[in-house]
Amino acid sequence: MTQPRIVLYSALLCPFAHRARIALKASGAVYETVEIDLKNKPAWYAPNINPASKVPAISYGAPPDSDVTKPPAGTFLLPESALVVQFIASLYPQIDYKDPIIRAKASFAQLQWDNLVAGRWRKYQFEGSEQDLEPLLEGLKQFSDSVPEEILGDEYGVADIILGPFVTRLFIFANEDIGKWAPGSGPKLVSALSGPEYDKLRKLGAKLDKWPALQETIDNDILVKKFTEILKNH
Ligand SMILES: N[C@@H](CCC(=O)N[C@@H](CS)C(=O)NCC(=O)O)C(=O)O
Hints:
This protein is α+β, with helices and mostly antiparallel strands. 53% of the residues lie in helices and 7% in strands. Glutathione is lined by residues 11, 14, 16, 38, 53-56, 80-82. InterPro entries: Glutathione-S-Trfase_C_sf (IPR036282), Glutathione_S-Trfase (IPR040079), Glutathione_S-Trfase_N (IPR004045), GST_Omega/HSP26 (IPR050983), Thioredoxin-like_sf (IPR036249). This is GST N-terminal domain-containing protein.
């Protein structure tokens, strides 16, 4: 039986959309991508695909020749990156860790990132105030503590898909010194992360660096170039 048609509505720079691209790549699913220009969103996107007007979203099972801008009534449409990833993992369970305990431990690490790192990183990168560094380092330490040893081997799972775009971007932007911080603060952050308390964070970063499903779905040069512009105008 041929696979139902999958159309991904994506945007190149978006880390949430990157999650969906990794999941689809890792699963080996056949899919089409429709790139949405977030600065100039097409008028059909919100009414026909995602009322929240965000990427990513997917359509699943639309007739082969139907218009991607107007899937026929009854086509399954799904927004929200975490839901899209979970849906792909339900279709292709091989993309997740097999052991439910490892999955649960990895989900806890995901939550730690969401609660203790995501907002603090964004604040530090977009505002660059020195006083925001300490809370960020503390969040990264607690995140690192929570990463289960079991996911630091050769196996990849949903947690890597959910965390991957964000962990990878943190290292890319810090190494390239792309932030509103004082020049040189990005590389300084990377050296601050060389201590033993961040061991598992670094190991996770290194593991993600050699994951084809992640690396083949990101363009580092474009990301760096565009993000430099975004921050300049922020
Ligand atoms: N919670 C959403 C967040 C998605 C999101 O914020 N996407 C951004 C791009 S990275 C977006 O589409 N922004 C367009 C807008 O807010 O108008 C998810 O996980 O999918």
